[in-house]
């Protein structure tokens, strides 16, 4: 793959003058690596990859892209699951890999100012080293970048207590599709001066502009975390267990996964089964227990759940190592099923509707995929389910995805029935774009398109993602 003819020498020379010769790449390996994310639905085909180091360089690149009518795909850690960072049509990829610095730290404000390319885990470690805590966490935290987290409003495993990425953003510096630099909210907690424009870029998937810097709120560190993994007999038992614990203890996480998901993790040989009883489904719950009465209360609730038949077996962490290994049963699922080319559904409804919703989705799955392996898991404590269908060896990728997409309509009709979301935390990108109307009304989409034209009148920012103009 070589740089296509539409990239003129003038264009390449201009962007090289902005960032330097070594930070403009057109070789095949770089194009294929930085032109994709974790999805496998669309083949990457970018024209050039550029590695700016500052907001000013990004703004200059966007202005040049407008001048030469070159589309842009923003690229962070490339861990996305909806093809939001796939450059499939000759775009210029702007990578934030070099924009990975902590710019300022404000202990009195519990706030840190970072560049968008900082790795999520890097931010978590910085917070910990300074006596604070950044609670947005998920399996890809070791490689995802804050800019990508903001672009998709990432959630993860702690949403039940701490909320989504949006809850932790106090300010953003963005480069709009016109190349303007906006400093939005500037880290303030209280600011009643009109439209909160920063929220348009959180979850905007890079379609309005590129997030280059963020002021991020931090939290106190949690104390004496404990984890329990409980085996449950069926879907119906999950929500009573959640309610039993949540009514007496403040949970920091409540996760859910099926036996097949656990088996895929165990097959990798890195962790062991938590207890002898093999159960259809499992829940993992986490809570702070700095005082002995909290531990006593947790055991009391566990025993009550056993008596009610909601729990078949269970284990509580007895050490930090065991806590980490119990978490791996949940956190290693995505990596463990990746070789099976899973077709992923990331759906959510109100917690109130979860039991009925699961029953209907399960019935659809059983009827339409009787011979497919189905991995259930998710953040069920906040109404978010991950339905992963694994590709059989005898089907090609295209045949498999075609079969899955036929059933999407039934799944998303059910999501719409319960006023839910077709994408709880992975974004829309290109994979969920055809289904946006199941969650957003025609009027909403029209307003979204109008906003896009205000910030990006030439439609150069991540075109073809979220919706088509």
Automatic annotation (TrEMBL):
Query: Could you list the residue ranges that cross the membrane?
Result: none
Keyword terms: FAD, Flavoprotein, Metal-binding, Oxidoreductase, Zinc
Enzymatic class? oxidoreductase
User: Which reaction equation describes what this protein catalyses?
Assistant: (R)-2-hydroxyglutarate + A = 2-oxoglutarate + AH2
Cofactor(s) needed for function: FAD
Would you kindly state one Gene Ontology biological process term found in this protein's UniProt entry? respiratory electron transport chain
Give this protein's Gene Ontology molecular function annotations.
Answer: (R)-2-hydroxyglutarate dehydrogenase activity; FAD binding; metal ion binding
Q: FAD-binding PCMH-type domain location, by residue? A: 42-221
E.C. number, please?
Answer: 1.1.99.39
Keyword field contains Oxidoreductase: yes
Known InterPro entries for this protein?
A: FAD-bd_oxidored_4_C, FAD-bd_PCMH, FAD-bd_PCMH-like_sf, FAD-bd_PCMH_sub1, FAD-bd_PCMH_sub2, FAD-linked_Oxase-like_C, FAD-oxidored/transferase_4, Oxid_FAD_bind_N
**SUPFAM superfamilies to which the protein is assigned, alphabetical:** FAD-binding/transporter-associated domain-like (SSF56176), FAD-linked oxidases, C-terminal domain (SSF55103)
Quaternary structure, per UniProt, is: Homodimer.
Family according to the record: Belongs to the FAD-binding oxidoreductase/transferase type 4 family.
**Name of the molecule in the record:** D-2-hydroxyglutarate dehydrogenase
**Gene source species:** Acinetobacter qingfengensis
Ranked from the top, the taxonomy reads: Bacteria, Pseudomonadati, Pseudomonadota, Gammaproteobacteria, Moraxellales
């Amino acid at each position: 793959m070589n740089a296509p003819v539409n990239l003129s020498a003038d264009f390449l020379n201009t962007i090289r003058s902005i960032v330097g010769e070594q930070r403009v790449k057109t070789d095949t390996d770089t194009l294929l690596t930085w032109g994709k994310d974790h999805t496998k639905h669309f083949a990457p085909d970018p024209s050039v990859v550029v590695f700016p180091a500052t907001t000013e360089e990004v703004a200059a690149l966007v202005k040049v892209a407008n001048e030469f009518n070159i589309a842009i795909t923003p690229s962070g850690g490339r861990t996305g699951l909806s093809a939001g960072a796939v450059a499939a049509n000759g775009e210029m990829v702007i990578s934030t890999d070099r924009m990975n610095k902590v710019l300022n730290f404000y202990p009195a404000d519990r706030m840190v100012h970072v560049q968008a390319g900082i790795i999520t885990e890097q931010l978590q470690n910085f917070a910990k080293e300074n006596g604070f805590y950044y609670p947005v966490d998920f399996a890809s935290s070791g490689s995802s970048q804050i800019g990508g987290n903001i672009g998709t409003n990432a959630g993860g495993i702690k949403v039940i207590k701490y909320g989504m990425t949006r809850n932790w953003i106090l300010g953003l510096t963005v480069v709009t599709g016109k190349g303007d630099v906006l400093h939005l909210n500037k880290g303030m907690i209280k600011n009643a001066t009109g439209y909160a424009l920063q929220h348009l870029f959180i979850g905007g998937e890079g379609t309005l502009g590129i997030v280059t810097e963020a002021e991020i709120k931090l939290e106190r560190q949690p104390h004496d975390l404990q984890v329990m993994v409980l085996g449950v007999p069926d879907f119906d038992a999950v929500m009573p267990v959640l309610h039993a614990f949540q009514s007496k203890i403040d949970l920091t996480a409540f996760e859910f996964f099926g036996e097949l998901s656990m088996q895929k993790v165990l097959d990798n040989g890195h962790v062991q089964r938590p207890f002898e009883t093999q159960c259809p489904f499992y829940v993992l719950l986490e809570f702070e227990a700095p005082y002995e009465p909290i531990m006593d209360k947790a055991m009391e609730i566990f025993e009550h759940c056993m008596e009610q038949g909601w729990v078949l077996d269970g284990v509580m962490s007895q050490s930090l190592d065991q806590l980490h290994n119990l978490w791996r049963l949940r956190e290693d699922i995505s990596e463990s099923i990746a070789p099976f080319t899973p077709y992923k559904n990331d759906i959510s409804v109100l917690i109130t509707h979860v039991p009925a919703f699961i029953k209907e989705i399960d019935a659809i799955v059983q009827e339409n995929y009787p011979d497919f392996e189905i991995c259930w898991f998710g953040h069920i404590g906040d109404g978010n389910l991950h339905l992963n269908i694994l590709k059989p060896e005898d089907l090609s990728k295209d045949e498999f995805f075609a079969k899955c997409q036929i059933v999407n309509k039934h799944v998303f009709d059910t999501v719409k029935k319960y006023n839910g979301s077709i994408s709880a935390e992975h974004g829309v990108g290109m994979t969920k774009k055809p289904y946006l109307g199941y969650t957003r009304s025609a009027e909403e989409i029209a307003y979204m398109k109008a906003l896009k034209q205000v910030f990006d009148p030439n439609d150069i920012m991540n075109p073809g993602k979220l919706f088509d103009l």
